[in-house]
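User: I'm new to structure prediction. If I give you an amino acid sequence, what do you actually give back? Let's try with this one:
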Amino acid sequence: MQRYEGVKEGPKPNDIIQLMRTEHGCKISYDLAWEAREYAVNCVRGIPEESYGKNTNVLAHGKEANPGTHTAYKTDPDGSFRYMFIAFGQSIRGFHKVMRQVIVVDGTFLKNKYRGTLLVATALDGNSNLYPLAFGVVDSENDNSWEWFLRQLHVVIEDDYTWLLSQTEIHPLVEQYVLSTNEQAMESASTIC
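Assistant: Good question. You get back a string of structure tokens that encode the predicted 3D arrangement of the chain. For your 193 residues, that looks like this:
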């Protein structure tokens, strides 16, 4: 199994079947190889269902380790995960002190068992490098999740002079939020772009 050290995915079920046949003289089914692989992955990475239960502890430790950090966590009435937001205190302080007052928001899908969407808010430094400001994990990119993310972002950045832009196709709710909070900034931004 040393040939799989450092390999991100590890052996596939067919590799496990072949390995068991050649090295141990055992014939196993594809289902058994799949279950063995899943068991090994869960031992190494943890069980996804259990990791969602640890989110509140991780957020609390983040706030403790980095003063000024803003976190938020929301679940459905049945207790299942819905939204999570984190903006590190150091990033918030850096944004207010030295960053350009332009925030770019975007979202991308997550590739895991439960899918979801990662929403990010970044700023640009003096050298036009991206400066991470806030992260959110939501169930999907929809009006409710964007509204929740933007409300949390507004808690962190209360400045009415900050411009909010989207890199790709702007989500209608982001555009509506920007227009309602800062029409002048949006007009200036649209003339620049």
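You can read the tokens as a compact description of the fold. Here is one thing that stands out. DSSP finds eight helices and six strands in the chain.
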